[in-house]
Design goal:
The chain is an all-alpha fold and 134 residues long. It has five helices and no strands. The longest helix has 49 residues. The protein is elongated, with a radius of gyration of 26 Å.
Length: 134
């Protein structure tokens, strides 16, 4: 109910927020399709983030055994999240390296075909060949 009230008061913000959620969901579905292992790590990171959020107050303000147990679990969750984030960063670097190699290949091929590309574009701009269009 509170969300509805907030939504009515701040419609533009709510729409922007909703669009962001939808974009994130689409990106996650795409990631799940492309790389299920990486998707699993992303989901695990989000699960652990929720656990960390719940454990932090009792690790900070708890008393005695409860505080010690919460601190132990918090440290374990933080360690797992760190390792997952490292893996995700490594995957990003691998993807960027692959993208860069593909871009370098494309640049080289375009350079090799420079004159043909220029000539094709010249013809597109100057010839009256509507009858040849698909």
């Amino acid at each position: 109910m509170q969300f509805v009230i907030w939504f009515q008061k701040r419609k533009d913000d709510a729409v922007e927020f909703s669009v962001g959620i939808v974009k994130e969901a689409i990106a996650l579905m795409d990631q799940k399709r492309k790389n299920p292992d990486l998707f699993g790590k992303i989901m695990k990171e989000q699960e652990l983030a929720g656990l960390i959020h719940r454990l932090a107050p009792s690790a900070k303000h708890g008393k005695g055994v409860k505080r010690e147990e919460s601190a132990k679990l918090l440290r374990k969750a933080l360690t797992e999240v760190f390792d997952i984030r490292q893996d995700l960063m490594k995957a990003d670097v691998e993807q960027m390296t692959s993208d860069l190699a593909n871009l370098r290949t494309l640049i080289q091929k375009r350079q090799e075909n420079r004159q043909a590309i220029i000539e094709r574009r010249f013809k597109d701009l100057t010839e009256d060949a509507d009858y040849l269009k698909w």
